[in-house]
Amino acid sequence: MADQLSRETHTGRREDLLVIFAALQTAVRKIAHLLSRAGIEDLFGEAEAPAGSADRDKAKKLDIVANEVMKVALEGTGRVSLMASEEDDEPVSVHSACGREGGSYVAVFDPLDGSRNIDASIPTGTIFGLYAAATSGEPTDALQPGTRQIAAAYSLYSSATMLVVSWGSGVHGFTLDTTVGEFVLSHPKIQIPQRGQIYSVNDARYFDWPEGLRRYIDDIRQGKGQNPKQYSARYICSLVADFHRTLLYGGVAMNPRSHLRLIYEANPLGFLAEQAGGRASDGKRRILDIQPEKLHQRLPLFLGSPDDIAELESYEDVQQINNPGYTV
After folding, report:
1. What whole-number distance in Å separates Cα of residue 158 and Cα of residue 283?
2. Among this protein's residues, is 63 annotated catalytic?
3. Global pTM exceeds 0.85
4. Per-residue pLDDT tens digits for 127-153
5. Residue 241 parent element (H or E)
6. Catalytic residue among 75, 87, 242, 307
7. 265 an active-site residue?
8. Active-site position among 46, 57, 119, 203
9. Could you confirm whether 317 is annotated as catalytic?
10. Which CATH number fits domain 198-314: 3.90.170.10, 1.10.150.20, 2.30.180.10, 3.40.190.80?
11. CA-CA distances (angstroms) from residue 279 to 113, 114, 299?
């Protein structure tokens, strides 16, 4: 990973990113190990501590543990002045990075995405975004639009542990070689197909969807859309896993409700989607252009092949603004 990063970043920032992404690799390896032993070490189930803010979901035990792993690793770099996590009510200022020579950075992350699936050992992931700090650690640094990201990544904990990253010049996938404990470049220069044949959404909610989204799904399932092929549904209910498949195979992964977080999920994955030649939308506008208004802001999210996202947006009424009451 260090070799790839060195070729793709400017000299002035290269050392900082090398240190930060080395820490991220360490955190991902640790989380992967904890997940593999969760049933043995009694790490399944909900955490005893309350979730805190109403903007956040109730935490699982592994959410809390993964959050601490990420924070310890990133704080140890001396480069990160502010950390904002999906598991914390407020950003955490890291004073060791303030005033240092060179750059200081804002790290935003969802330490363990897909936590509803944890107890069933279904694929989960970590989502990570990185910004240059605009101040010396003020909480507002976490409210930068996605266009200001300088790097993003996600890890996938599944049959293999993968780390998929972009430093702003393409997307590369690294697979953890457990025999040596290192990430090896396995998917260089990932390019999402221009169009796919798979859609990923919880279509058990079909009858609650707005009319435009129902028409879109009806058309692509029957081969009546712009693509004459009939689309197949593939849905894991783990954002990282659904997005990873979409990145490799094409199509669209979506949650039409205002459920996913702009800062921790939509912006990093949107950055990766665009770097791979895809698109990220809330159904009406580009995700990376949205100015965050609050830390745990939620929104609809549509990620995928550029032709598929453009076609979906053309149906206009695709955002499920009204929630009839379900939480899953």
Report:
1. 29
2. yes
3. yes
4. 999 999 988 778 999 999 999 999 999
5. helix 239-249
6. 87
7. yes
8. 57
9. no
10. 3.40.190.80
11. 21, 22, 16
